[in-house]
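hey so i finally got around to running the thing on that chain from the lab meeting. sorry it took forever, my laptop kept dying and i had to restart like 3 times. anyway pasting the input first so we r on the same page abt which one it is
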Amino acid sequence: MPGRDAMDLNKKNMKNLMFLIVFAVLVLVGVQRIENLAAGFIFLCRIVFPFILGGAMAFILNIPLHFLENKLFAKAKKKKIVRPLSLVLSILFVLAILQIVLVVVLPEIATTIASISKNIEAFLPKLEQWITDAFPDGEQIGLWIDSLEFNWDKIIQSAVNFLKNGAGNVLSSTVTVAKTVINSLMNFFVGFVFACYILLQKEKLSVQVKKVLYAFLPHHAVEKTLQVAALSYKTFSNFVTGQCLEAVILGTMFFVSMSVLRFPYALLVGVLIAFTALIPIFGAFIGCVLGTFLILVSNPVQAIGFVILFFVLQQVEGNLIYPHVVGGSVGLPSIWVLVAVTVGGSLMGVVGMLIFIPLSSVLYALFKGWVHKRLEDRGIHDI
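ok and heres what got predicted. didnt touch it at all, straight out
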């Protein structure tokens, strides 16, 4: 009936109006109490931080765990012990990597850094002589270089005084420091236990989450949510695995090549390039600049050779290794990778560069699917 339809329409309009009024009031109160909201948000983040940390641990550990379950123990008869055994091996694998970094890499890097100061002192007279030979009339440049003095004893003494003052400040607030350490250890322990629980019970937890979603949300909304979650996990997992593997391969290539060619600081430069290569597009070039500076201090001629070596290995990595290791794992065109890295770096620094590529890939895939669906609904197939 027309009257009943009009009444239902008015009720619907009233509900929408009430919703808008409540929303406007909440926004107004939020703006007026922005400091309280920020404090509440920070407090909430502190509460859920161990679980966020645990989720990150579970995501990282799940990569080797998934490989072990599906490759190494795929034909195992006792399925009940496969998951716990895979988890233990995954944890040992991560601990082994940390052990190698702490025992092998860090001492070598510390020794290398200690020798850099001596090389800088020896490099300045060579730089002065080189500039004098290259620019015979550049007396002002020579005088400026002569004015550069590195009093390492004074620098070390300043560092010691800084550490002493810092130690005094730390000792004056022992309780605060102890509380911070205990909280950090507790957060790590809770996060680790939470990560192990997620990995051991992930199928059961998945079923429980699905039950909750289907109980309170429409069927199509649940299907879309599960689709987005699966796409996000696959994209992030492929990106992290591929990027880490590519960084390790590139760093190893530089270490081996520089060792064979007898370039200085082979291990340090290899580690620097491996870590900076985790940043897509720009990362390896940052490592190149740092490596060139270190080698330039020791031997300018070898620095030129290192730059040539960098571009050769970069071409090998870009054309042979990257397409097979990473390839189209993120499914994002190159121009959008550049945009994602730039925007992510501007908003969140290095972390943003790493997060925004897989995040943009997920959004790109969802938008692409939505566009195709719209075109099909409108009967457009010839574009």
